[in-house]
Design brief:
The protein has 98 residues and is α+β, with helices and mostly antiparallel strands. 39% of the residues lie in helices and 11% in strands. A hairpin with a 6-residue loop joins β1 and β2 (51-54).
């Protein structure tokens, strides 16, 4: 069975893989967010504190995009909140318009 592609042409599994790789390679929040931007994602806030919006306007909760059972939502928040507090991030609609 072939994995379903969305309008981006990238499978969900591939998106998870590249975001997970960016997480593992990054030694700081700024490096991680920069890597996400290079991949075409905007870090935003929505119903959850940290979400990713891609160039097609698709939104995914960041913790669900990191395939590492040892990484918890609280770990991600602690890692990002100093340099990227949620109140400084665009909302999902604003990120989609960027």
């Amino acid at each position: 069975m072939t994995p379903l592609l969305d309008v981006s042409g990238i499978t969900k599994e591939e998106r998870i893989r590249v975001v997970t790789e960016a997480w593992r390679r990054s030694d700081s929040a700024r490096a991680f967010v920069s890597a996400l931007e290079d991949l075409g994602y905007i870090l935003a806030t929505g119903n959850r504190p940290y979400v990713l919006v891609d160039i097609y306007g698709n939104m995914n909760a960041l913790p669900k995009m990191i395939d590492d059972r040892q990484v918890r939502t609280n770990d991600i928040r602690a890692f990002l909140e100093k340099d990227f507090p949620t109140e400084s991030l665009p909302g999902v609609d604003e990120a989609r318009s960027l």
